[in-house]
Design goal:
By secondary structure, this protein is an alpha/beta fold. It folds into two domains: about 95-210, Leucine-rich repeat, LRR (right-handed beta-alpha superhelix), CATH 3.80.10; about 215-384, Leucine-rich repeat, LRR (right-handed beta-alpha superhelix). The protein has helices at about 1-10, 15-25, 25-35, 40-45, 65-70, 80-95, 110-120, 185-195, 260-265, 290-300, 325-335, 355-365; strands at about 60-65, 100-105, 130-135, 140, 155, 160, 175-180, 200-205, 210-215, 220-225, 230-235, 240-245, 275-280, 310-315, 340-345, 370-375, 380. Helix 10 runs parallel beside helix 11 (about 325-335). The longest helix is centred in the first third of the chain and has 14 residues, at about 80-95.
Length: about 375
């Protein structure tokens, strides 16, 4: 414990008066306070009194961010000895049931330690697990990840995941967040399907993903990027909010989505109320893009319906023309009888385009006279 105090302790000891005030608080109140502290602040409380020396080891949750701690200690980078010391002390000497574990550090370089920690945590009652790799290379998650029995929230960043054949289900998983993760289409579909209580699903920059297949009977919120070729959403009767953001990838790795399939999937969501889209979702790499999109819309007019859709937000990047977006918005809002809010956001300066933008908004307002139509440029609401 001395090494952690030497690294993390700063400032003078509180007065005895302050110690007495803290000591008189009920333990349930103290537990709530501890639950909101970072590991650095929790360890610092060990200097308040002798009885508090190991109090930080009684927390039910562990949160460690190497970058944040290095910044607070005025260091360029945190040595692995400090990371390993903190994690090992917590896991070995923790006096309560571990409910959450969040670690953001350089994982791949220290796989043996990470392997043992995840193995140990898989035998506990962990409900929230978050692993974030700070290196550029993917951290290969050990198969013990799929042995967590009571897991309710799983967040992985810059990790490689492969589902073992012995995996059955995440029976209690309600939230799944995958960011910059390498996983094959079949394993991702299996992971989602094997989480029957899944409510919130967040997928960003899934490496190598071509077809996104989602089955979620309890799913209510879906956030994905546009870096996939095809989309299929089935058995999601409670899905009320869908967000499709721009894919942050190198130009040579970009995948242009089959937005026809997206429209079909979205129209099949009977409970959909909120739709947030990025303009590059409907970008077509062709000089005939507006004509192609218009042709699809004419051919499918009246085939799709969004009966409960109330809010639509479309963000158009500065380098993308609004031609296809306008046709797409036209199509969706004309099939949304209960639409209440339509917001269009555009990056860059409006310049001399006030006239065309005004005409576009008037066009939308005439289609949905009962909806509030607004336009934002660079985060500022423009009155047009």
């Amino acid at each position: 414990m001395a090494d952690m105090n030497q690294v993390m302790e700063s400032g003078e000891r509180p007065s005895e008066l302050n110690v007495d005030r803290l000591s008189t608080l009920p333990w349930d109140v103290l537990n709530r306070i501890y639950g909101k502290l970072t590991i650095v602040d929790a360890v610092r409380t060990s200097v308040l009194a002798q009885d508090w020396r190991y109090r930080w080891l009684a927390q039910s949750g562990f949160t460690f961010d190497s970058q944040e701690i290095a910044r607070r200690l005025n260091k360029d980078e945190l040595s692995w000895d400090i990371v390993a010391s903190a994690v090992n002390k917590f896991l070995r000497h923790n006096t309560s049931s571990i409910k959450s574990f969040s670690l953001k550090t350089h994982c791949s370089e220290h796989y043996p330690d990470m392997y043992q920690w995840i193995q140990y945590l898989s035998e506990q009652d962990v409900e929230l697990l978050a692993i974030c790799e700070l290196c550029n290379s993917y951290f290969k998650m050990p198969s013990y990840l799929f042995s967590f029995v009571k897991l309710k929230s799983l967040s992985l960043t810059t990790c490689a995941v492969r589902i073992p054949t012995t995996f059955e289900k995440f029976y209690w998983l309600a939230e799944l967040v995958l960011k910059d993760v390498s996983i094959c289409d079949a394993d991702l579909a299996r992971l989602i399907c094997s989480s029957p209580l899944l409510q919130n699903l967040w997928l960003w920059n899934i490496h190598g993903l071509k077809c996104l297949i989602i089955h979620g009977p309890r799913l209510t919120k879906l956030v994905i990027d546009s870096g996939f070729e095809d989309l299929f959403i089935g058995a999601a009767p409670g899905l009320v909010a869908v967000t499709i953001v721009a894919a942050l990838r190198d130009p040579e790795d970009r995948v242009f989505i089959n937005w026809h399939a997206v429209i079909r999937c979205l129209s099949g969501l009977v409970s959909l109320q909120t739709l947030v889209l990025s303009g590059d979702l409907i970008k077509i790499e062709s000089a005939k893009a507006p004509k192609l999109s218009a042709k699809f819309i004419r051919g499918n007019w009246g085939r799709f319906c969004f009966p409960k859709l109330e809010t639509i937000t479309v963000t158009c990047p500065a380098d993308i023309s609004m031609g296809c977006a306008v046709n797409f918005i036209d199509f969706v809002i004309s099939q949304s009888p209960n639409l209440m809010f339509l917001t269009i956001k555009k990056a860059g300066d409006i310049g001399q385009n006030i006239g065309p933008v005004t005409n576009i908004l008037q066009r939308f307002r005439s289609i949905c006279p009962h909806a509030l139509v607004s336009y934002e440029q660079n985060g500022q609401l423009l009155a047009l």
